[in-house]
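Handout, tutorial session.
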Amino acid sequence: MNDIFAFNRRLAKSWWDLTEVGLAASQTIAARLPMIAAAATGFGSPHAQRETREMVTEKLQATAEGFQAGALQTAKATLQVMTGQSHPAAMANHMFDVAEAATQPARRKARANAKRLWTEGG
């Protein structure tokens, strides 16, 4: 990645991904808060109680997947640096690779949850 324009495109994509996951997370939280409150007070439907349980499970799963993907990408980046690909542009590319790999499971889940919960009607 010696091209400054490629770096700028990658930076813009990262910014867009961050914006997209922020919006998806906001939608998901807005849809789930009433379900969580109802489940916590004992007035929740079986669907709300199941959604609350699944919410915790999926967060743990996405965290584990992100950790594994980030660790694997870090190992790949380390190997590339050790083999001489350590100029500044390559290092920036390696950092983007690690960040994207580590956050991809959570981004994917946040977008899917927002779509599913808003399609179901919250």
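The second record follows below. Compare its token runs with those of the first.
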Amino acid sequence: MKEKKIQINFPEAKWKYWFLIWIGKIHYESGERKIELYFYNKKDSTDYYDDIEFSNLQIKLLPVSFLSEFKIGYIYNVREKRIEITNGGYVFNIKIPKNLYLTKNKEFPLNGNPFFLKNAKDIIPLGFSYFKAFSNNRRENRQILISPYTILQFFLFNSDILIKKALCGELIEGFNFKNIKYRQCEENGDIVGLLEYDTQKIQKSDAVILAPYFFLKNLAGIKFLRSISTHVDKAFSDSLIGKKSTYLSFHWEDFINYELTIKGKPLYMEKDNEKTNYLLAYQIDSFRLKAPKPYTVDKIELFPMNSTTSTDDRKNHTPKNVDRPLHPETQGLSLTLNGDATNNQPAVDFAIENEYGNPFNIKVEVIKREKQFQAYNAKYYADKEITELTRELERFDNDSTIIRENIKNILVKISKLEYFNEVAQALKYKFTKNDSNFKVTLPYSFTDFYIVEISYLSKYMYLIEFKNGIIGVFNASKLNKLSTEKLNSIGNQFIFEKDEIEKGKVLWTYIKNVCEEKYRQQDIIIKQGVKHLNIPKGIKEDEIDNAIKEAAYKTAENIYTNRIMSTIF
């Protein structure tokens, strides 16, 4: 097969190789999703860093489908238009006996490392979620840093179609997962899970890859699949006008007791004469669940529906009973399957081991047409765990519906963050533009709030937005600059005050009226907040942007005149 050429345009450079050092944010612009890829120019197609030209960093915004081709550590040959996969990198084995949580609201440990990203703090925000684990070699005490993309590229992002479905929330919709059925084999007593998938929505190879997720205990797999798009939808609904972007994140906490083999690049950071060893993960080479029974079943059988190899017309066929005679705790359900006799496709089981990689190590078979022709009844067997799982699946589907509806409601409202961004834009480019001593940052994202820093020479003050319709204003008692970590700590303290507020009251009003002295003792001065101005009701859709800009301009004018000038001068 002829090697696929990959076209990426780079400027003229000293060397022909471009090393992928980092995968950045997903962008959504003009109906298209794109991904940031960060490349350094490099002399050779090796894993060594000594020939990287760290002064030549190029950022490429490419279709998200490139995530199926490019992993951190890959090298692009610009002359031959192909990927060079290096054989270098260190391999580490990691055992995760309990939950591994995404690390949040902490600065990425490699920020500032000369062999990592230039200006990494501006590229990797404080809210970036990543995994941090430790190698099994205790003497080395190395921390393994794993980007969420590295996880996704191993489990899901191996085809354009799966990437698109993951980001659009369509991974689960192709399966009839609310009606999973179970049978028990007479031969060996194994429990088999029976799952239908719609061939109009998902192809066979992808169905085989996704099937194991539906049978992991604690709904770990289903939560993982659903959470990818939920996170993206939420992030995009809260993002700025014309600047919809986010790092990917997902729910992983329910995966427990597993082993990873990671390949990556050793790096270290030194602070106060203390050296910390890290490994920047390039890719996952293997994944193994170590629990004796991580699944609710021993084997999975997939049934293609709505296709030429399967039919809903099963009235003329008598089901074959393959269950042991048990007394089910729940009502027995019947699944009778057959096929169209005019189709001459071979009656062969499709086993996952034959064609597709399976990180979960469970047998998956697609029951082809002739096998379905010998239809059988599938009954729930008498197992309390399965009964509870069925109920939990129903609850999960209801919760997912509510989440999707909430996201839709968020999307139709005017985003408070959009308004806050327009206020910052007006302050930066209109009210302080003519005085070079003024500096105004655009909104800086934390998990539950956004902050704008305003400075004049060595004096600093801050605006904070909780997306509730009022902008908070505060500063240090000596008007000194507050570190990112301090701002995060203060912001989270503000958030915790929510527990004390009566329903219907505004957070910043409570902080100003009730907590002012408490924060003064911490050398934080609380100022009167500034309300968002209301956008007129009934305004035409094509006039909303201008209405937001006009209202935000008036709010910025209020902040500049009555907060900034009175505080700094």
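Points raised in discussion: The chain has 13 helices and 24 strands.
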